[in-house]
């Protein structure tokens, strides 16, 4: 195995790192306090080509590999998980699903604008009554001539109030996953209501919303993929999405490490920098080991994806480990900072609040364990 990055990848990483230091890091605390990132960041992400990685150039994308995507998401995760999440959802879940399952017309309609950051996408799977058990969702799509009428409620939808297009998963058939179909729904359609969810523990800069669909009429041309294929589309998006979330977690943990090493070198107690004490070094070493392990697990997934090999279980392993590692790293970082870690003058408190959700969305840690357990035993322990 070759663990060295190629020249193009090193360049992308340096470009992303410098861009995040200039455009994200100086604003992250203010966006967190204001509970909104400056939406101009979306156009800037598009201008850099960051919203088009892995999307072919003929659709306005910037090409590249799954590893390129991971490198970008690590840098964004270090800067601000709210910004990382905008990309994870609009590019990772929406554009990539359109690339894989969309018709030529759907690709031409949405991908150039999504890649340029002139439009955002959101991914409407979770409902108030169905989170982990997404296959039981109740949003309905009823055929009406050549059209569909969609009704239901989606909750916790990232980019929800900003997005111009939503992938909505709705029931077109019987109960269970096989009765679910995906639709591309413009968010300005009559009957579409979006309400911001405020007061989040972390990811406060991100627009998280409840979506209510009241008899929204969409033509059959807006159906994404085949009838009854919706749950498969959602799960395929989330499998790959977990790789991106894991990369974002590596960024959080790395940010914690860099901040902690810097602080430990400057802060003096008992007449010496706290970096000179073994118990402080233990905190730093634990974070460093987790960063390395989480990154290697994530890059392993990227390698499998690039080679077209199965990667679902490996993505669960990476997401589970990296998200728990990010929470631990942020907790350790606060310990290194002492009382200063508890206030938002330094970034580590925000790292902990942002990291917490990483063990919840795109499948909770328990759900990842059930997926890994099913792969190990062949037994489904979900229900
Ligand atoms: P539940 O499913 O009710 O789980 C509650 C607890 O029960 C958890 O600990 C869970 O692990 C456990 N549990 C459930 N079933 C089992 C089982 N079989 N065995 C053992 N334990 C179990 N969703 C979207 O569709 N699109 C988005 O863009 C999106 N963005 C989000 C952004 C944020 C900030 C948040 C908080 C959530 C977002 N979500 C999104 C929703 C997210 O994916 C769900 O919150 C998550 O899947 C968990 O569902 P739930 O909250 O309903 O919890």
Automatic annotation (TrEMBL):
Residues 7-117 form the Acyl-CoA dehydrogenase/oxidase N-terminal domain. Keywords: FAD, Flavoprotein, Oxidoreductase. Residues 122-215 form the Acyl-CoA oxidase/dehydrogenase middle domain. Its cofactor is FAD. InterPro entries: Acyl-CoA_DH_CS, Acyl-CoA_Oxase/DH_mid-dom, Acyl-CoA_Oxase/DH_mid-dom_sf, AcylCo_DH-like_C, AcylCo_DH/oxidase_C, AcylCoA_DH/ox_N, AcylCoA_DH/ox_N_sf, AcylCoA_DH/oxidase_NM_dom_sf. Pfam families: Acyl-CoA_dh_1 (PF00441), Acyl-CoA_dh_M (PF02770), Acyl-CoA_dh_N (PF02771). Residues 228-376 form the Acyl-CoA dehydrogenase/oxidase C-terminal domain. PANTHER family: ACYL-COA DEHYDROGENASE, ISOVALERYL-COA DEHYDROGENASE, MITOCHONDRIAL-RELATED. Belongs to the acyl-CoA dehydrogenase family. This is Acyl-CoA dehydrogenase family protein. The lineage of its organism: Bacteria, Bacillati, Actinomycetota, Actinomycetes, Mycobacteriales.
